[in-house]
Q: What sequence folds into this?
């Protein structure tokens, strides 16, 4: 699926738009048609915003090799917006992207498509690290005492993993993730809501030896409250480039969760016990 990023930049929804108002369909149904192997002539009528401006001749599903399995899952839907996660899977890889919908006078429309940026940089680095002989690993560890070979390899692998693999990592280590939250809370590093001194508090939290050790064991880069613009959440960042990051967010009160948006928090997928997988655009 090396061409997936190219396809997502040049997806080509098909068929001329008709003058008739399309029959109302739910976001999940539109998503399934959008990635189906067969073309769907009415699809252009279910697009708006930036998605409508990108429409050309064929659906995204027609551009994806037929051997690739496609799975759509509704992440969230309210009266005005919805997000559907799409997984593409073949025998060697899994990839995820996210469809953002808006509900207007004529029903639900697909407005934007997002996926985690820059992940193509990860696999070559993972391959390079994995192939290092023991002597080079020892030298690497001397040069990078704060992020040794084992951590860097695990962190890069997790950063570029599919959502399902990140979720599996969380479930395997759920006890340690809960321990990590307790350590951060016990330290009182983020006790105030987005106080002016939060940057200092964040530095102190990540420098705490017990917190730092668990972050490294779990292949996490840092703990922060700024990654998702949620003043009451704890975001445990795995990695990413610029503003396109992936990590695990902790917020046991659903009412305080940040809203998803194609130009911010592109997806927030529930795991368990107040934990969520998040990605930012």
A:
């Amino acid at each position: 699926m090396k061409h997936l990023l190219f396809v997502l930049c040049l997806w080509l929804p098909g068929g001329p738009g008709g003058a008739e108002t399309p029959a109302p369909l739910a976001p999940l149904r539109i998503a399934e048609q959008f990635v189906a192997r067969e073309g769907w002539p009415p699809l252009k009528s279910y697009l708006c915003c930036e998605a409508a401006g990108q429409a050309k001749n064929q659906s995204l599903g027609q551009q994806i090799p037929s051997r690739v399995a496609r799975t759509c899952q509704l992440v969230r839907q309210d009266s005005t917006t919805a997000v559907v996660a799409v997984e593409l899977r073949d025998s060697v890889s899994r990839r995820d992207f996210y469809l953002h919908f808006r509900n207007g006078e004529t029903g639900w429309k697909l407005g934007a498509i997002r996926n985690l940026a820059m992940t193509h940089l990860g696999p070559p680095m993972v391959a390079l690290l994995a192939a290092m002989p023991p002597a080079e690993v020892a030298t690497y560890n001397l040069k990078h005492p704060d992020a040794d070979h084992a951590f860097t390899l695990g962190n890069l692998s997790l950063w570029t993993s599919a959502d399902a693999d990140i979720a599996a990592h969380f479930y395997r280590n759920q006890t340690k993730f809960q321990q990590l939250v307790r350590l951060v809370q016990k330290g009182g590093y983020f006790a105030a809501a987005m106080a002016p001194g939060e940057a200092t508090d964040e530095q102190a939290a990540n420098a705490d030896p017990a917190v730092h050790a668990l972050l490294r064991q779990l292949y996490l880069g840092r703990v922060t409250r700024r990654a998702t613009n949620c003043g009451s959440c704890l975001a445990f960042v795995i990695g990413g480039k610029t503003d396109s990051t992936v990590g695990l967010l902790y917020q046991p009160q659903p009412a305080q969760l940040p809203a998803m948006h194609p130009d911010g928090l592109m997806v927030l997928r529930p795991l368990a016990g107040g934990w969520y997988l998040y990605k930012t655009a």
About this structure: DSSP finds eleven helices and nine strands in the chain. The CA atoms of residues 29 and 72 lie 9 Å apart.
